[in-house]
Amino acid sequence: MKPTHLKTHDNHSSLLSSICIKPAFPIFFLSVVQNITAAGALRRFNYETDHAALLAIKNQLVDHPEGVLSSWNDSVPHCAWAGVTCGRKHNRVKMLHLNSRNLSGTISPFIGNLSFLNTIALHNNSLHSQIPDKIGNLFRLQELWINNNTIDGEIPGSLSSCVNLRILSMSYNKLEGKLPAELRALSKLEILHVRSNNFTGPLFDIIQNLTFLVTVHTDFNGFTGVIPNSIGRMQNLVNLGLASNKLSGTLPVSLFNLSSLQILDVMKNQFHGEIPTHKSFNVSSLKSLNLAENDFSGSIPNLTNLTQLESIILDYNSFTGRVLNNFQRFHNLRTLVFSYNYLEGDINFVNTLTNCTQLKGLELVSNDFSGKLPQSISNLSTSLTFLTIGDSLISGILPVGITKLINLQGLYMRKCELTSSIPSNIGKLRKLQYLDLSSNKLTGKIPDSLGNLSFLSGLYLENNQLEAKIPPSIGKCQSLLYLNFSGNELNGTLDTEVFTGSAKFLELDFSYNHVEGPLPSEISKQTHLGLLVMSGNKFTGILPEGLGECTGLQYLFMDGNSYQGDIPSSYCSLASLQGINFSHNNLSGPIPTCFSKFPLTYLDLSYNNFQGSVPTNSVYANASEIFLVGNSRLCGGIPELHLPKCVEIENMQRNKRTVPHALKFIIPVIRALAGVLAP
């Protein structure tokens, strides 16, 4: 049994213990409560910060009353606002999707307060002004989409602080200046879209070390410099679009060792030199190659191993030599363009294109090709929509089988040495919109079946040896705007159906043929005419008065015919005329005074029978723009025209009138004297 004092001590200890221990639980609880309260306060502070930032962003945007921003109010939490996405754990704004919402206004600098943002999508709106410098606060930002707006100014250097950025899309704005050197810090960047802005300065100095880049679109700017050999380090590159800049130099071999590269577009720059030989190529994934509008020279490289190619565009360069490529294994090829170079030899490589079942465009215009036109063009893909082989020395016949290319929209074989006739069934090409067979040696008649081509807008058959009448079926081509049959052997009269059908011509040229008879008055139906050329034919009668209804006429050439009579007064309605040629006819009467009110820069009335006074103002004041020789009864005008004064003409005419009157008195006197003097 313990002593009492010990018990007392124990009790005291217990009491002390209870006194000392009891406060520990409230202190711990208070600490937890304080932490929870602090965390709650922080969350509330962050929540309110995001809320305030969003309202500040809204303040600088203009939206329709019923637009996306109508939901941005205090009636619902901002995480439920349209276009706003918050994170699950922290309830912070993570994504801002306001693209394609018809918004205008500016990007608020308060966007930099949304520190948890990883995606900004403001593309396809009408935003303007500059990118706020505060955007550099968003170190979590991975995607920035502001393309298709009217944002101007320079890219802020602070953007380099967004070190996690993977996608930077700024195309189709009004941004300018150089790319900031600080952008080199964006080492995770995969997509760079800055096309169609006003950027200048070096490009590859900034991006050559961004080795994660997959897509680069810098087209339609003013970037300068060369493509460095170090581009070979950008092994992730799939799409490289550099078109329409001021880049120069040669293409390095390392560019063609980017094994992932699928699209290479350097069109419309200042590159020169030869393309590396195919032995240097390690771009077997390449699908599109566009080198157009530069100054590349030498031979076209052997592309035979690049069988994945879908598009090869090399026009407007200085390539020379023969085309030795074999395209038999290019089953995906859709477009092949070699136009406007100095290529020579035959075009038998076309024979290897017959296996390209997806071919849609073949353009070989303006080279030094020679030899016969391969008849295999009839066996090209029926998917073909454009076939252009003009401006070369290609000869031979136009194959009848060409009408099997039923999807053709454009057929251009101008200025070759083609003979034979136009296939009579060319009307089978129902989708044809443009047909140019001009400046060849084609004979025969113009096929009636052309009238079946309801989509045809341009028909050019000038400078051939075509004969017979102009088919009236031409008037049925309801989309036909431009028609040129000049410089052939066409004859007969013009049928009214040419002008009364569904065709609404803008330009009509039948010059230098043998068309005869009067010009049908129904030409008045062609009220959209801007150019009418009927020169060098055998038209007779008077100028059609109904032509005055074609009030859009700008050029009217009727020279070299046998028209007679006055210029119809209705022509004073042709107030848009800039050029008139009525020379070498039998026209008479005064020059219409209204001509001086027209915006004429060319007026030729020479070799007719016009009479009266010539004005001195407007077109008549410039001797290099007006031609009046061969009209002996004209007077006045500026001295350079060397016309007699109108007073002299009047005196001559007065004298001609008075001489016969005097003879009435003189002749009887002479006769009387003769009788007196007779023996």
UniProtKB/TrEMBL annotation:
Residues 49-86 form the Leucine-rich repeat-containing N-terminal plant-type domain. It comes from Saponaria officinalis (Common soapwort). PROSITE patterns: LRR. It comes from the Eukaryota. GO terms for molecular function: ATP binding; protein serine/threonine kinase activity. It holds the Pfam family LRR_8. One of its GO terms (cellular component) is plasma membrane. This is non-specific serine/threonine protein kinase.
